[in-house]
From TrEMBL:
Belongs to the TonB-dependent receptor family. SUPFAM superfamilies: Porins (SSF56935). It is found in: Cell outer membrane. Residues 113-220 form the TonB-dependent receptor plug domain. It is a multi-pass membrane protein. This is TonB-dependent receptor. GO terms for biological process: siderophore transmembrane transport. Its main location: membrane. Residues 351-773 form the TonB-dependent receptor-like beta-barrel domain.
């Protein structure tokens, strides 16, 4: 009996051992994580890896070729003997040229890009680590088709397809940041989003108004911050990271920390970043006109300001600032069907000097002693509940409510003036989103939802006499107590006609309300205030065609709109010295009609080519033009005779362009990619559109393996002649260089850059880079600040 039992036990252990040896484990080349869903195929047998990355090898014959295939990884062919020599382990390399990335921004639910007609750029946390951007604006500037303008170092205004500022929508965790005072001029609120706290980001190019409403004319930038991770076992799991970085061009010092604690049903994450920037050094190989030879010294004002010589005229005095970000989330998932997340996001900058005003001259002297933005403070608190289960009207539902509190201010004082003017704005926004998704069968899918945003605007102005300390109220930037509300209903339907042909259509109705009263104590307008109701119906229609597995052709037509907000309707400000913009209560919404075609080709998983062409027609486009107030073309504003301007509805405008992208793989470790963006546009009067940048692009040579990531790349920018500049830009000659006729123009430029990461330990990654290697001195289009000179960057990432 005992001998029989031992024999059976030995036989069982032997079988178990043999069985274990006939499994292969498949992992990711970068992270080492197991890969689920890898298909193993030979002439005699097939198998598939499970959630642990393991696949059965029993049925494969010795010596025969085995193909390892996964839609997100490069295919690999090997044999059973080679796998055994490698310790029954196979490593796959992620395919950077695949067509089937998952995105969530288009319809607010996860979908494959291979089924969506929109042109979308996806940014993953790994890319953020590779390029080490100082701000979210710099992060976007590394992407194809996005141009960044900077009036000062503490900013960054994205331009997409000839649109910018309040014609591009910012979204954080599904909630729109754009509020009632987002202006049509360059807008820098994107820096409030902490790049180090992002899990991913997506950029939709072209009108996204069906799902997101007003402002999404040029595109939608959707940022997804880190979510709490839950434990896969009954034991709570903790993880985190600490990150620090130094940059030489502005003496940047950044420290970041993230900590996650998760159980099976609950989880929490805390993320925080603090950054301090000193004054920015420009490149030495540039024109003398960009130098900063003198500045107004800071210090107590005693009746006169002191202009001093700059010890190093490459250093752009008064550009430094600091920023603090804090993110906290709490997650509860009692079952696979229900997921609840509470989130709090807070961002605060220090004072941000407005450099483009500090370098203005009047009568051969600096015009301003002070010009700075006060702390930019943004707080977002939200709650999102998601429920998934088959029902008659929906299979999944998401309810999200949010509250935002935003504060900004402007402070300025002219040279030798004793009065400092300060204007502060505060906006409170209450938001509500209810989204549904319904699968009718494997072919048809419906998305629909409701949305409401309620804005309350507070605005005040104070002038302080620096000699006496006395203060007095002055005209605010906006009517205090103004309101801007928006309500909408929308839907989108996707139908897979066949595996090769997908059809999508969407529609939205939006109703907006604006109201406010002008204080006649400050202005003698021919109107008391404004009380406006606007509505818009817009939609989109798109098709996706896959002639073969390696081709994708998208044709997409869409309409978008932008309803005038409080900034458009009611603002009074000096756009440039000697010009003043006044309210125009007769302003109407502007509309865009967009047609685009997008062609993608995956060439045998070793190259990807993509070309996108678009043409946008704008009706009633809001543009700044000369205006009259009470029959007068000039009025006194802040003690200066100023030409009157206002936003008006132009008859029409057109914007068109191309985006080209090419990526080629050379084996598993080397690749090159190239992109170029060309945009042109003009209004009905033949004037160039203000937010159309010059031609720009980049070229990269990348090496990557399990330990190293190295990217040597060129950034390049075309020129803009005098006749290519919008009228608004021609009025700012101090930001440009004179051409042979003495007229302002923008010369072309290029930079060579190098970025690298080295993983010295599974939990430690060191990074180093050099930007603008040849120390070129250049200024980007419409920017006030001169770009950084040669910049050495060092960082370290520690995972815990």
């Amino acid at each position: 009996m005992i001998k029989s039992f031992c024999f059976v036990l030995i036989l069982w252990l032997t079988t178990l051992s043999l069985h274990a040896q006939n499994y292969v484990k498949i992992t990711d080349s970068k992270s080492g994580a197991p890969i689920e869903g890898v298909v193993l195929i030979s002439d005699s047998f097939s198998s598939q890896s499970d959630e642990n990355g393991k696949a059965n090898m029993d049925g494969f014959l010795p010596g025969e070729k085995i193909l390892f295939k996964h839609s997100s990884y490069l295919s690999l062919t090997t044999t059973k003997e080679k796998i055994s020599k490698q310790g029954n382990q196979v490593i796959l390399v992620e395919n950077p040229v695949r067509l089937d990335e998952v995105v969530v921004s288009v319809n607010r639910w996860a979908e494959s890009k291979s089924e969506i007609p929109h042109y979308i750029q996806s940014i993953q946390a790994e890319q953020i680590q590779h390029y080490n951007p100082q701000t979210s604006a710099d992060l976007l500037g590394n992407q194809n088709g996005i141009f960044i303008q900077k009036s000062q170092m503490g900013g960054g205004s994205p331009m997409i397809r000839g649109f910018s500022a309040n014609s591009i929508l910012l979204v954080v965790d599904g909630i729109r940041m754009n509020n009632a005072i987002y202006r049509s001029g360059n807008l820098h609120n994107v820096i409030s989003v902490d790049a180090q706290s992002l899990e991913s980001a997506e950029v939709i190019f072209g009108p996204g108004s069906v799902i997101y409403g007003s402002d999404a004319l040029g595109g939608v930038m959707s940022f997804n911050t880190v979510n709490p991770k839950l434990s896969t076992t009954s034991t709570p799991e903790a993880s985190g990271k600490v990150f620090t970085r130094y940059s030489s061009a502005n003496m940047e010092q950044t420290v970041h920390g993230t900590y996650n604690l998760g159980g099976e049903k609950w989880g929490a994450v805390l993320s925080t970043t603090y950054t301090d920037f000193d004054d920015l050094r420009m490149g030495s190989q540039g024109p003398d006109a960009y130098l900063r030879p003198q500045y107004v010294a800071n210090g107590p004002f005693n009746g006169f300001d002191r202009i001093v010589a700059n010890d190093n005229d490459l250093v752009q005095k008064y550009t430094g600032y600091s920023q603090f970000n804090l993110l906290g989330k709490l997650r509860y998932r009692p079952s696979d069907r229900f997921d609840l997340v509470f989130s709090a996001n807070h961002s605060r900058t220090g004072d941000i000097p407005r450099y483009d005003r500090l370098i203005e001259y009047k009568n051969d002297r600096l015009a301003y002693a002070e010009w700075y933005y006060g702390p930019q403070i943004w707080t977002l608190a939200s709650a999102r509940a998601q429920y998934t289960a088959p029902h008659l009207l929906f299979d999944r539902i998401s309810l999200q409510v949010g509250f935002q509190d935003y504060t900004e201010s402007r402070n300025d004082r002219k040279l030798n003036y004793e009065n400092r003017r300060s204007r502060e704005e505060n906006v409170k926004v209450l938001s509500f989103n209810l989204d549904f998704g319904k699968d009718f069968d494997e072919k048809a899918e419906l998305f629909y939802g409701l949305e409401a945003y309620l804005n309350d605007v507070g605005s005040s102005g104070i002038s302080k006499d620096l000699l006496s300390g006395e203060t007095e109220n002055i005209a605010p930037r906006y009517p205090d107590g103004s309101k801007y509300n928006s309500f909408a209903v929308y839907s989108s339907f996707k139908y897979n006609v066949s595996p090769k042909f997908i059809f999508q259509v969407g529609a939205r109705f939006t109703y907006t309300q604006l109201e406010g009263v002008f204080d006649k104590q400050y202005y003698n307008f021919p109107f008391d205030g404004f009380d406006m109701d606007n509505s818009a119906f817009n939609g989109n229609l798109g098709v996706v065609w896959h002639p073969t597995e390696e081709w994708q052709i998208n044709l997409h037509g869409s309409t978008g709109f932008r309803s005038p907000n409080i900034d458009d309707i009611a603002k009074v400000f000096d756009s440039e010295p000697g010009n003043v913009v006044v309210p125009n209560p007769d302003l109407k919404p502007e509309y865009a009609r967009n047609l685009e075609i997008n062609v993608l080709r995956n060439i045998h998983d070793h190259a990807k080519f993509e070309i996108t062409g678009f043409y946008s027609w704008l009706k009633d486009a809001m543009v700044r033009r000369d205006f009259s107030l009470n029959g007068q073309d000039y009025i006194m504003y802040d003690g200066e005779l100023s030409k009157v301007e206002a936003l008006v509805n132009a008859e029409s405008a057109k914007i068109y362009g191309l985006n080209l992208n090419l990526e080629i793989l050379f084996g598993n470790n080397w690749r090159t990619r190239h992109d170029i963006s060309l945009t042109r546009g003009e209004d009905s009067d033949g004037f160039p559109m203000r937010h159309v940048p010059p031609t720009f692009g980049s070229s990269h040579l990348v090496f990557e393996n399990q330990l190293w990531y190295v990217d040597l790349y060129l950034n390049y920018n075309g020129k803009l002649g005098y006749n290519d500049l919008a009228p608004d830009e021609k009025d700012k000659p101090h930001l440009y260089l004179p051409d042979e006729n003495g007229n302002p123009h923008l010369p072309s430029w290029w930079t060579l850059n190098l970025k690298s990461n080295y993983r010295i330990h599974p939990k430690i990654t060191l990074s180093a880079g050099v930007e603008n290697i040849f120390d070129k001195g250049y200024r980007s289009y419409s920017s006030g600040i001169v770009a950084p000179g040669v910049n050495f960057m060092f960082s370290a990432l520690f995972k815990i």
